[in-house]
UniProtKB/TrEMBL annotation:
Top-level taxon of origin: Bacteria
Recorded family membership: Belongs to the FPP/GGPP synthase family.
Keyword Protein biosynthesis in annotation: no
Organism: Cellulomonas dongxiuzhuiae
Keyword field: Magnesium, Metal-binding, Transferase
Gene3D superfamilies (UniProt xref): Farnesyl Diphosphate Synthase (1.10.600.10)
PANTHER family on file: GERANYLGERANYL PYROPHOSPHATE SYNTHASE (PTHR12001), SHORT CHAIN ISOPRENYL DIPHOSPHATE SYNTHASE (PTHR12001:SF85)
Obligatory cofactor(s): Mg(2+)
UniProt keyword tRNA processing present: no
Protein name: Polyprenyl synthetase family protein
Pfam families to which the protein is assigned, alphabetical: polyprenyl_synt
Length: 372
């Protein structure tokens, strides 16, 4: 999130409240691990490290949507909303632990990923067994711990709310978790498919964008905030109309940063998405343009290079140049603009009061106009 918009997360006790809830969770986990065995202490350290680096973007969308639908700072529901924000952050941590294992990512937010850290510790300790399998297993368990914690935090958030409000909010949270899991599977499936029909390639890529990232990054947090405020069905539908196109634009920006971003800012090596074989809209558009132009050489370079784990810096540079030269980068930028236009038109159509309206507009800009 751009520095100029970081204040949106700091206002009205938002960051402090969410971080306090997360700190309570880490302290409780540390005590539990210590009581079970000293050998379990690294689990709490790894969860704390993952939670420390988040932008709190999802929590901010949830909070300011709550404010937009009648929530008042300091009222009886504020703590519930802040705890719901913490639950969103814990769920994101769970998804990142698991995602890094499935993608075999080496860094996250500029730090070694958990499975790499645990594998290195295994290797340094001259232990028995395969270090990589140990690291992967530990990271999967870390994701499970964060997932359990997110459920616990949401349960506590909803405990004292009116039953109808709690029921709707819990349903939103449950749908989000299911969709992300299904989206993660669709991502795995897409990476196993041979390149073929450009329209089908893009359809798969858009399905992954919506299920795995768009809804859980923006749409569901905005809907959850409205639900916690007791918003009616029409208001919730309006949140979905804002959140889905904005969430898609958010993920498309992420895809561009994965190829063109500065590693010192993104915290990930340039080209990781290409080595991992991510079937993004960006790559699908490049293949479609190269195919339409009859450029068999470009098609061959793209289909053989994307997904090559041994791709070196020169190979990444070649693929990146093709993504630009085919016009795919420009087309994805245009698609981001179109999705943002749709999302901002939907915000304009809502009767959200200030300061929530301006906060959500600024958050929307921060989500898509970012360098990390």
């Amino acid at each position: 999130m751009p520095t100029a918009n970081a204040a949106l997360v700091d206002r009205e006790n938002l960051r402090a409240g969410v971080d306090a809830a997360l700190a309570r969770h880490v302290a409780g986990l540390r005590e539990t691990c210590r009581a079970i065995s000293p050998d379990a202490a690294p689990l709490a350290d790894a969860v704390e490290s993952m939670l420390a680096g988040g932008k709190r973007l999802r929590a901010a969308f949830c909070y300011w949507s709550w404010r937009a639908h009648g929530g008042t700072p300091g009222d009886g529901r504020e703590q519930a909303v802040l705890r719901a924000g913490a639950a969103l952050e814990l769920f994101q941590a769970a998804a990142l632990f698991h995602d890094d294992v499935m993608d075999d990512s080496s860094t996250r937010r500029g730090r070694p990923t958990a499975h790499r850290v645990f594998a290195d510790d295994h290797r340094a300790g001259v232990r028995r067994g395969e270090p990589r399998r140990f690291g992967d297993g530990a990271a999967i368990l870390l994701g499970d711990l964060a997932l359990v914690a997110s459920d616990d935090e949401m349960t506590r958030a909803l405990a004292d709310l009116p039953a109808p409000v709690a029921h709707i909010a819990h349903a939103v949270f449950a749908d989000m978790r299911t969709e992300v899991t299904v989206g993660q599977y669709l991502d795995l499936v897409a990476q196993t498919m041979p390149w073929g029909d450009p329209q089908e390639d893009e359809r798969r890529a858009r399905d992954v964008v919506r299920a795995k990232s768009a809804r859980y990054s923006v749409e569901h947090p905005i809907v959850l905030g409205a639900a916690l405020a007791g918003a009616d069905e029409a208001a919730v539908a309006g949140c979905r109309a804002v959140g889905l196109p904005l969430g898609e634009a958010f993920q498309l920006r992420d895809d561009l940063l994965g190829v063109l971003g500065d590693p010192s800012t993104t915290g990930k090596p340039t080209g990781d998405d290409l080595r991992e074989g991510k079937r993004t809209v960006l790559v699908a558009r490049a293949l479609a343009r190269a195919t339409a132009a009859g450029d068999a050489g470009a098609v061959d370079v793209l289909t053989s290079g994307v997904g090559d784990p041994h791709l070196d810096a020169a190979g990444v540079a070649t693929l990146t140049e093709l993504l630009v030269r085919t016009g795919a980068v420009a087309e994805v930028e245009q698609l981001i603009d179109e999705l943002c236009t749709e999302a901002f038109a939907q915000i304009e159509a809502r009767d959200w009061p200030e300061p929530a309206r301006s906060a959500l507009v600024d958050l929307a800009h921060a989500a898509v106009q970012r360098a990390a």
